[in-house]
Amino acid sequence: MAVAQAPVVTTATGNAVVARDLVRRYGDGDCAVDAVAGVSVEVPAGQFTAVMGPSGSGKSTLMHLLAGLDRPTSGAVEIGGEDLSGMSDKQLTLLRRRHIGFVFQAFNLVPTLTAEENVRLPLAIAGRRPEAGWIDHVIERVGLTDRRTHRPSELSGGQQQRVAVARALASEPTVLFADEPTGNLDSRTSAEVLDLLRDAVASYGQTTVMVTHDPVAARAADRVVFLADGRIVSDLYAPAEDEILATLKELA
Amino acid sequence: MTRVALKGILSRRMRTALTMFAIVLGVAMVAGAYTLTDTMRGASESLSDAAYDGTAAVVSHRTAFDLKNEGSLGSRPTIPASTLDEVRAVPGVERAVGSITDEARIVDKDGDVIGGGPYFGIGLDPKAGELAPFQLQDGRYATAAGEAVIDAGTADKEGYGIGDRITVQGRGPERSLEVTGIATFGDVDSIGTATFVLMDLPAAQAMFEKQGRYDEVLVAGDDSVRSALGSALPGQVAVQAAADHDRFTLDGLDEFVSFIRVFLLVFGGVAVFVGSFTIYNTLSITVAQRFRELALLRALGASRRQVLRSVLFESLLIGTVASVIGLGVGLLLAKGLSSVFAATGVELPETGTVFATRTIIVSLAVGIVVTLVSGLSPAIRATRVAPVLAMREGAEIPQGRVGRRSGWIAAAAALLAATVLGFGLYAPGIDATGRLALLGPGALLLFIAVAAASSRIVPGLVSVLGKPGEKIAGIAGSLARRNAMRNPGRTAATAAALMIGIALVAFSAVLGAGMRESTKGALEDQVRADYVLVGQDGWSAIDPGAARAAAGVPGVRVSTGLAQDEGRAFGEHIAVDGVDERALPNVFGWEWKEGSDASFAGLANGGAVVTDRFADDHDVATGDRIAVTAPGGRELDLRVVGISKPDRFNPLGLGQVTISRASFDDAFSAKRERLAFVSGDGVSPAALDRALAGFPDVKLQTKSEFQTDQSAWVDQILGIFYVLLGLAVIISLFGIVNTLALSVMERTRELGMLRAFGMTRRGVRRMIRHESIVTALVGATLGIAVGLLLAALATSALSEEGLRFALPLGSLVAFTVVAAVAGMLAAIGPARRAARLDVVDALGYE
Predict the structure, then answer these.
(1) What angle do CA A52, A55, A56 make, to 5 degrees?
(2) What letter would DSSP give residue B672?
């Protein structure tokens, strides 16, 4: 099938994340490489978007830019209506507190904290007090009520990643970024984690952006954005698995 | 494998530097101690050469026994001037001159005594030639009354030149002399805190009330002249080699140098001991972090032996380089220490710096051996890394044998410590010095026991000590508290190093406070006078004219001195006090075991009051007769009229036997008084000051001033202790820096996650800082606990000497605060590094 540029629908409201003409250049002069070479994308609120592409396509860099972890060489990012351009490191940090949750491939739980304490961590960092019952609710949602006092070392990989999902959801972020969330998991636990993410979108309208190279994972998304050489080459809505595979094959 | 070790050191430059620092400081302390004391000993030897080499014999009054404090009180009687003629008549005597060696203080424009003693006041025959140790630098010797030659050091410091007038106090009120010359003692430039005034012989005899008499006759000739003199002269004179007679009390200087050497080496040992903890800890962490690399080496075919050698080679290299640097730093430190002593009023005599081969060998050996020994356990642990670990994700190095057995080590060390301390404290037949000497190894074992046990104590302690941080710093504090508990062994070893320094500081502070309390308490009981007259330095004997001068001030009812000299009774060396039996009870007193203040009256007719301890030791009761011999040979037959029960703590060094002043002056030659007491009604202090203006060696103090002042030396000593122990604390701080830096590296990814979730750079810094503070507080808490325990034991060992236990709460709080601040400082570097991490890089960190 043809790889077509998806029509960009510009709406002032209803978008959780908006990126315009993003470029991220490493090095300079002749050695300069554009990891992200002009990406414009809008992520509407409540949408589950997957970003796919071969290794080195710039999908991780794009995620870092969209999440305010890295600064673009040019172009602009808006999260929850706030323009990130010109923000200081501190402002970016505070913005991440308000708007962003993360799920990492390597879980990245704090080993000294219990499961529940890990879930509470983002709120604690922000100095926010959660509403009564909210944390219990989130933990119950990921099915770890009986594991809340366990340390990460006492949990399986799948359980750890469920804690990480709960942690990302705890602060009710504008966008949840998941970076290869199933990369370290077997297929059964992968499915559980994807179900949780899917469920969060369905139940709370949680806007989610997931970087993955796993077509099975991508199928859980509402929309799959394909990246190659730092550019968006395809933007599919609710694609079937064979459609995803075909696109990937074309990019490889 | 050598290459791997070398590359390893180079790639971990910062860590290697920090580890080296611990050794550098310890070695520097050892090298500094040797260099400083060798230099002092060199000076002391030149002084001795200069003072005694040209003199074949010294003829002086025989003493009935060896004097212990000659010079300070002037116990040795003089000899008649006619002795000189007798000496000159002996065959083999090439030359003989009379000499006066007494005390004379030079007083500056503000009325303060220059220098810190000894204050030599010397009557010198201009014909003495090589019999005099002095070399004129400028001008001429004094030839008439009213003239004086002074030492170059004083001339230099005070800016005195030929023709200037100086104020000198010998016996009686001060007088003004003209400087006719400036001299050195041999070729030694600085004689430390000592000063000298050289006068014409008749002028000195007059000044010290020794008209027609000499302190000694100096004889030139060959060594055989001594036996010739011995057989020719009457029995009441002694013929000695100049160094044996030691009229400049240089033996005391030698003893002082030996004491300083041991003193500094002990602190050097402490620094090295603390350093070994830091080395052990750093190398352990290095091995733990390198385990994948080590496993890879093993997988590539390296044998265990090769791994062991590679790690040991790394320690050897670090140890050697650091020791060499330490040696160099030690030379600088020797100068620094010299200034520390000078700043606290203990100026040391110096000639050229003496840098002995022994210093080099010992310093290098100490540094290298300690590094190797500290690195042994981590190196052995490194050999246990299995090759397969290289392939396994998230594998951890197995705990070493030492780690698993730390409980047993702690128990064994604790048992040994208890045995040594228990034996030292409670075994019969050990004197106070012996008991204190056993405290040293006991303390060392206790430190090892606590350090070995601390990995078990640490979690609980951190949990408590981290609480306030949690309140202050919220999530950063809470994470810091848990991070400190994360690797209890590591936190424990880091804190243990600090513990040692703080324990010794706390120990000193508690003992110091005890001494202060005991001094105050004892004086409170004994002194009943309104005012006390003491030497400027608080302990030197004062001119008896001072008490007489004070007696003339309107309103003064009593003004009486206490004279003291050495004596011998029951074959033992004792101190004898001479007091005015009518005046003393009004101004000074003690508890009685037998008798009362009225017993003092009994002193008048050959009576004596003895202390309860003396009475017990020699089975003496009231009414018994005792025999006391004076240095000059006079034997006193005394009747015991009372047994005193003074405070066991004896800050004034009061004698075991007290007799009337009349009998004392009759039998003893000490002219100066230990101190004097003044009481009266409506006495104006200003009038007293005026009356005492001619006695610059005397300080007038109220009773409470006196009480405080008598314990001022405690603060001085504590000051020196704190400076020296500060070194150990600094070394342990570098250990904290090292551990934190490594932890930051290990937790890079976690730090990235925290930053991603919105922790600010400031929050990160705060987290690291709090971890550091908690670690430091663990060290401080353990240290204060151990220090208190040791101090309590030492106090109990010294309880027979009347030492009280006092808790210097303020100081202990201050140490805790200092530890916390030190922890903050240690965290600066690692915290900054952690905060600077790029979030994206940190998240991708392997």
Answers:
(1) 105
(2) S
Q: How far is A207 from chain B (nearest CA, A)?
A: 17
Cα(B568)–Cα(B662) distance, integer angstroms = 19
In this predicted model, what pLDDT tens digit does every residue of B485-543 receive, in sequence order? 888 888 888 899 999 999 999 999 999 999 999 988 888 888 999 999 998 878 888 88
DSSP state of B445: H
CB contact under 8 A, B756 and A102: yes
> Number of Cβ pairs closer than 8 Å across A and B?
70
Q: Is residue B265 part of a domain?
A: yes
**Predicted complex ipTM:** 0.87
**3-class secondary structure, A241:** helix
Structural domain boundaries, residue B374: 1-53+249-400
**Cα end-to-end span (Å), chain B:** 25
**Domain presence at residue B234:** yes
Average pLDDT of the segment spanning B135-143: 90
Q: Is the pLDDT of residue B199 over 70?
A: yes
* pLDDT tens readout for residues B629-643: 998 888 999 999 999
Q: Are residues B213 and B255 in the same domain?
A: no
Radius of gyration of chain A (CA): 18
**DSSP annotation of B588:** B
Among B482, B485, B753, B757, the residue to mutate for chain A (most A Cβ within 10 A): B757
Boundary of a domain, candidates B187, B222, B240: B240
In the predicted model, is pLDDT for residue B779 greater than 90?
A: yes
CA distance B759 to chain A (A): 6
Residue A121 to residue B475, Cβ atoms within 8 A: yes
Q: How far is CA B536 from the centre of its chain?
A: 21
Residue B34 lies in a domain: yes
For residue B426, give the amino acid letter: Y
Distance from CA of A2 to the nearest CA of B (A): 35
Provide the number of structural domains found in chain B.
Answer: 4
pTM listed for this prediction: 0.84
Q: Are residues A96 and B843, on separate chains, in Cβ contact within 8 Å?
A: no
- Has residue B417 been placed in a domain? no
